Amino acid sequence: MSIFSFIKEAGEKIVDLLTPGNANASEQLKDHVSKVGLGNPNVQTTVDGDKVTVTGEVATQEEKEKILLALGNIAGVASVDDQITVSGPAVAAARFVVVKKGDTLSAISLAVYGNANLYNKIFEANKPLLSHPDKIYPGQTLRIPE
Hints:
- The chain has 4 helices and 6 strands; from the N terminus they run βαββαββααβ.
- By secondary structure, it is α+β, with helices and mostly antiparallel strands.
């Protein structure tokens, strides 16, 4: 379990999510996770200022990482406290990279794999959070599979 940091100003804007006293924040986050295409996982969330804490159990390390990214890539969220357990087989966690201005998936692929043509590997590892390889933005955090 660990805390993942995100760029607070980057990401999708969810109205009123981080408003102090928002009793619906947990439900809004669960709806967001579902809306980005991750279904309805067995997780619960709490919001404390700009920190989201997520607990529960998921089947795979990949599912866990995608949920963490879905929660962290929201405007106003600076960190996600990962308290999720994985019921499936233990596998190594993926690396993460923060998109910089001017980055493309090809450029990221060249930097991490030494081959720009492996950009689709990064795209596939971030589905359904990414709908198209060209739709990334500065400040977004992406999974980088081995």
